[in-house]
Amino acid sequence: MKAKQRLFMAAVGAIVTLLGTVSNAPAQAALFDFQFQFNAQETGEPVSGNFVIDDSIPAGRTPDGGTLYGNASPNYNINVGNNVFQGSSNSIVVARNFARPDNSSLSADVIGFDDFRNFNPSNPQFLATFAFAPNSLRSDALSDLQTAPSTALALINTPTGATLSSVNALTKITPVPEPASTLGVLTLCVVGIGSILKRKQQFN
Q: What is the pLDDT of residues 66-87, one digit of tens each?
């Protein structure tokens, strides 16, 4: 009888310890997936892809008043027709009430992606720029980009030099699921308790 009680209490203690470890673990950086798609008005080709965003990167300032997050996009994919462009380590610029990239003299909330390796300040061209209606973004913080509308003016400058754009690109920003979620841990706990109860019944 005492052996059964010790087994039960030891297993329950292990589960409680596991839950405590998970709840007290330091918060990890959140990753977001910025997805887009449109038909290029220059060629009619379908354009789609995504940029991963890491919101743990500290903010800096750009000379024109935007917010810069260095190397905050660890990877990207751009699909143009049958061509696929992939890369990594892009920085992100976020600017509210900024000049639109189409030289229309209108203002917009802008999200831009580029590695800035061959950036020309006199002729600024980002790898990808998305311009939303003014005041669409709650703030310049990467964690607030989910407030962006589902449509934007999009301007893509591919690595091969092609410029592709659309005034009504579809966009979506969603959190990237964590590898080990709290739900998964709770599932393990339930399975563990079930195993304990089963073994306890076998002893009886």
A: 899 999 999 999 999 999 999 9
Predicted confidence band at 7 (pLDDT cuts at 50, 70, 90)? very low
Helix/strand/coil for 152: strand
Contact, 90 vs 113, CB < 8 A? yes
For tokens 């304990």, name the residue. Answer: 196
Q: Name residue 110's amino acid.
A: V
Question: Whole-angstrom Cα distance, residue 203 to residue 25?
Answer: 36
Instruction: Name the packing angle between helices 2-24 and 182-203 (round to 10°).
Output: 180
pTM of the model: 0.73
Residue listed under structure tokens 């000049």: 99
d(CA 53, CA 22): 24
Kindly report each contact of residues 173-179 with a partner whose C-beta sits within 8 Å and lies 24 or more positions away, as own/partner: 173/32, 173/33, 173/34, 173/35, 173/53, 173/145, 173/146, 173/148, 174/32, 174/33, 174/35, 174/146, 175/30, 175/31, 175/32, 175/33, 175/146, 176/30, 176/31, 176/32, 176/33, 176/52, 178/28
Beta strands in the chain (DSSP E): 31-39, 46-54, 60-61, 67-80, 83-99, 107-114, 128-132, 151-157, 163-175
202 — pLDDT class (breaks 50, 70, 90): low
Mean pLDDT of 1-6: 49
